[in-house]
Amino acid sequence: MSRKHPIVAITGSSGAGTSTVTETFEQIFRRESITSTIVHGDSFHRFDRFEMKRVFNEATAAGIAPPSHFGPEANDFTSLEKLFEQYGKDGTGRIRNYVHDEDEAFEFGCDPGTFTPWEDLEAQTDLLYYEGLHGAVKTDDVDIAKHVDLCIGVVPIINLEWIQKIHRDHSKRGYSTEDVTDTILRRMPDYVHYICPQFTNTDINFQRVPLVDTSNPFDARWIPTLDESMVVIRFANPRGIDFPYLLSMIEGSFMSRANAIVVPGGKMELSMQLIFTPMIWRLVENSRKARGLTGLRSPSIA
Ligand SMILES: Nc1ncnc2c1ncn2[C@@H]1O[C@H](COP(=O)(O)OP(=O)(O)O)[C@@H](O)[C@H]1O
Ligand SMILES: O=C(COP(=O)(O)O)[C@H](O)[C@H](O)COP(=O)(O)O
């Protein structure tokens, strides 16, 4: 946690929707003239796609469970924590990107399945924004969550998450439903031990719940739309959250618990804007004051 150099982390399983939520945060940063540096969690994978296949084949041949992209064997949690620690201290660090598909290959100039070279973070940023699988991990060896100032979980119910992953991995990464199903099955132990426990450490969780049949996620023709779903927004610490304001601004919303507001799926974006804009602005305002920057603009949303 850092007053001078805050960290915002959006964490969720593969296919949960963290990249999609990032678009909302980018809009907030643009509108509030906030300079952010974005870190994608898969850049802390230990192996590129080819090395991962080699490691997988060696483990399988040896009759042992191969590492998965969800656990510490294939992710350098220690380096991720060190990046958060360093950024929190002085606003610096080094990042790279993992290239998943042809679009990213064109963007970064590297082949799919490889990493871009490490490079220094942009200087003088207002905050570091993490999007990935492990933004709130706590294990015996690392505590990534403790360095994060605002930690958001993107946690659709599992059938919806699997539908989203299957559709995305098929359409964007060229995997078959069978490939993705095998990946889901293979990752299950690490999903239970490293991905799910994070959502107890987050400040706010967004859980999209479809209102249509998703009984067989491996045979769903399309992803349930926002209008075919509701979203449970749970606050770990509801103190200071202006629920009456949110209920008045978000048509069709209601409280399901003292710390949980339920909104129509179509209002998810508006809910995020209303909830996060003041939170981000407070983090940035304190950061700029602590760094001796003047000329603070008031936020566009009260
Ligand atoms: N709120 C949403 N409503 C509809 N589709 C969504 C939503 N969030 C994510 N998706 C879809 O689910 C798939 C996975 O989303 P993505 O953001 O790529 O997940 P992640 O980055 O967590 O792996 C994509 O096809 C995306 O369009
Ligand atoms: O799951 C992720 C990242 O999470 P997300 O799915 O949220 O991007 C891994 O980076 C890819 O599966 C590895 O890619 P590949 O196995 O295709 O090299």
Task: Please state the average pLDDT score.
Answer: 95
Number of strands: 10
Q: How many angstroms does the end-to-end distance come to?
A: 24 Å
CATH class: Alpha Beta
Can you describe this structure?
The chain has 302 residues and is an alpha/beta fold. It has one domain: 3-Layer(aba) Sandwich (Rossmann fold). Helix content is 37%, strand content 16%. The protein has eight helices and ten strands. The protein has an eight-stranded mixed beta sheet, sandwiched between helices. It binds adenosine-5'-diphosphate and ribulose-1,5-diphosphate. Residues 14-15, 42, 49, 69, 98, 100, 113, 133, 173 line the site of ribulose-1,5-diphosphate (RUB). Ribulose-1,5-diphosphate binds at residues 14-15, 42, 49, 69, 98, 100, 113, 133, 173.
Write out key terms for the chains shown:
302 residues, alpha/beta, Rossmann fold, two-stranded antiparallel ribbon, 8 helices, 16% strand, binds adenosine-5'-diphosphate, binds ribulose-1,5-diphosphate, transferase, PRK/URK
Give the arrangement of secondary structure elements.
Layout: E1 7-11, H1 18-31, E2 36-40, H2 49-61, H3 77-90, E3 94-95, H4 102-108, E4 119-120, E5 127-132, E6 150-154, H5 158-173, H6 177-195, E7 204-210, E8 229-235, H7 243-249, E9 254-257, E10 260-264, H8 268-290
Parallel strand pairs: 1-5, 1-6, 2-5, 6-7
Antiparallel strand pairs: 3-4, 7-8, 8-10, 9-10
Helix pairs in contact: 1-8, 5-6
Ribulose-1,5-diphosphate binds at residues 14-15, 42, 49, 69, 98, 100, 113, 133, 173.
